[in-house]
Amino acid sequence: MTEIASVTAERGVPPARPARRFRPGTWAGLIPFFVFALLFLGLPIAFLAFGSIADNTTGAPTLDNYAALSTPLVVNAFQTSIEVSLVTAIVGGIFGFLLAVAVILGRLPRVLRSALMTFSGVASNFAGIPLALAFIYTLSAEGMVTHLLRGVGLNLDFKIFSKFGIEIVYLYFQFPLMVLIIAPAIDGLKPEWREAAENMGASSADYWRRVALPILTPTLLGSMILLFGNSFGAQATAYQLSAGLVPLVPLAIGNQISGDVLHNAGLGYSMAMGMVAVMGVSIVGYAWLQRRAERWLR
Amino acid sequence: MTVASNENLATVAASARPAAPRRQRGALWAWVVFIIGALYFIVPLIATFEVSMRSIPLFSAYTNAFADPGFFSSLLYSFVIGVITVVLSIVLIVPTAFWVRLRAPRLRPFVEFITLLPFVVPPVVLVFGLIKAYSRPPLPLTNSEFGSDALLVFAYVVLSLPYMYRAVDSGLRTIDIRSLTEAAQSMGASWFTILTRIILPNLRVALLSGAFLSLAIVIGEYTIASYLARPAFGPYLQLLGANRAYEPAAVSLISFGLTWLAMIAIAMLGRGSRTRIQIGGAH
Amino acid sequence: MTFLTLSGVQKQFGTTYAVHDFNLSAEKGEFVSFLGPSGCGKTTTLRMIAGFEQPTGGTITVGGTDITHRPPNQRNIGMVFQSYALFPNMNVADNIGFGMKVRKRPTDQIRKRVEELLGLINLPDKGGRFPYQLSGGQQQRVALARALAVEPQVLLLDEPLSALDAKIRVALRKEIRAIQRQFGITTVYVTHDQEEALSLSDRVVVMSEGRIEQIGAPPEIYNFPATPFVASFVGTLNLIQANVVDGASARLGLEGQEIRGAQPGAATGARVTVALRPEAIELGETGGSNRLRGTVEDVSFLGSIVRTRVRIGGDSVLSFDQFNDPGLAASAIGEEVTVSFSPEATLILEGRASADAAIEQAIAEV
Question: Of the candidates A34, A143, A268, which has its C-beta nearest B47's C-beta?
Fold first, then answer.
């Protein structure tokens, strides 16, 4: 990119391009994209937004739906969702980071790195029914591991259909997602930095504490935010695992769509907007951290 | 300081050996971490396999799964939807990314913001909004099969937008599109020719990588397909899981294996160029 | 008193040797350059001194202590990298103070030393800047200050200027040498630029394919190259093939003409390569007792120098330089001219096949 920019700078600006004004031509090529985004992203959100401030029966503007967010049922759902997402983001982030460092910098056989990367590509998408089933087969009352542990005398009274169960299961796609996001950043740690640090007397721990981890921190935090968002929005796996036992926001919204439990469309809309708000804040945080990380590494 | 002392040990050992090149052995902690991770990932797969083998006669779970017409019809449906999604994504994104790089670099942050929006709108919210918006005139898409199929495709294009855009963008970054375009224009080529004859062929690897990923996402997706009542693979799996004992295990493993093969294919394709494997997410 | 010694150092990768039998004794405060083309082993040797590569044989001693197998963070050797390798997450002051912070020195001691060094490298008010905010030349100066901050016994520089513009390179290399003199640190400087090596060093080690071709002071390397490689790598050099007409009287024949070599001793009838520096040749007959006639093939204007290429006939081509003088008319292409040089300026190189000589000649003519 820099070469192109410098070459064009040397050649000078072509005469037909004005420096400041936006010619209509600049926008023209992007019209299909903007139209699509408007139709299938903007419009749905807009409908949800308007629905959330409209009364269910009369359609008159009201904030009742947002007030309804403070009912214990909804608050519980949000609290549980946020808690599950935080836990899986942090645990997934830390262990995923360790896994990535292990295969990239841990001097393990090279083939393990590509195996982990391809596996992560699959596993990060393995969510939904297959994942739920796999863990039911493993850790439920009749599961394989439960049987094994019972065989050695450990009676694991573990309920897979619980908040903790969901957290364990979610990690199956959180670990790989972290590995995939953080691997390029670990690759980006130049060997010269480590050599320069050693050169000046730093031990391995010094290097990690003062150089590598500080450099990686914005990316680490940003990735954990992505993990948080990923978990917060997940629906299929939880649906399969909990069937209403664990209160999660995506499930509640899903119920609204099928019209099952509450028959309160407006509440569904405000919950959806609540989700959008939570995700929006996460993305802003992520983008800010990305900016920090890139600035240093220019 | 475990690593440092490992290095010291190796150094001492090396100086005892005459002129032998020092071989770096894997660090202990790395092995421990890797094995824990491997166990966590592999055990559930083994459990699934074990369940799939419980059917009598052996392997009948797999044969039944394949014999079930729903398996192939839903897989085919998802596959076709996936292909259409990929084609539509390419048609939409490649010119856009190209235009942003070439003509409107100042609009870049804005476009990138839009490509981040699908992260902000989880599938369940997206399908909720889509149904609300398109179940009434003027565009009552949900009232017809074709309309719902179309809505599904559009939803999937939105879902795969971040990944496709990132793949195309990094692919464009490695080729000097300004010079290529100017050279082509000086020889009289139209925009269409430039895009199809010059840009697209050079993006082959990036597009394949994005395409495989989008395909994987579409085939495995459940939420949107289910709420739009489409006969896709995701809802089929859910139905299977609710009704049968061993077949779901077999089908899970099959889909896992197929996806892994696809990922290995991408990795091999991407080996020669500088595009990296793109990442997925949960639904 | 030798301070840095490398004895019999070698580095083997599988069956190939990156470095063969490297022997060097450097005095305290001496500035030594490793000069050679890419892949000659100079950087590998430097990294062995630093401890980032382990020699497969031989020893390295600093100040009397054998450091061959010490880990790099225990050698107290400072290194400046080609890519600067400044820590991007720290500002300039923290980068420079890193070594002392790792050694747990008191904060004001660190602060004072950092200030001192910032003044030394002429960046007194840039302490709070981050690497990405500095130019290449500034980053390199910070890298130098960082390496010097912990008062290392030896300073190593790995092609530190190759990523910089030509003008900055010349200015910065003088700065580096001045600072080095001030501190009196034994220094090893790796480069492929012979002008850098010649202008900066007390001694130059010319390397090729993992071996030392010659060690000596710059004038020695330039004027008395020991091997054909050194002759062709350092400075531009004319190489022409000649027959020894009479070894006893040092008469050499080429292209039907005859010249005299610097000294007798070559075997009569042998085919030898004669090396001649462009500056030793003059247009006309005033350059010395050797005369050669030829046709002007090319005239290049290089700024302060005008380089003329004369074909003596067949394969023999001589390039010579004249200082640019606007009053002097340049030779015309195709013009028949006579060039002259003294016998003492010639160097007889034996032992290489004519194919190698042709290649070296091609290099010399660039």
Answer: A143
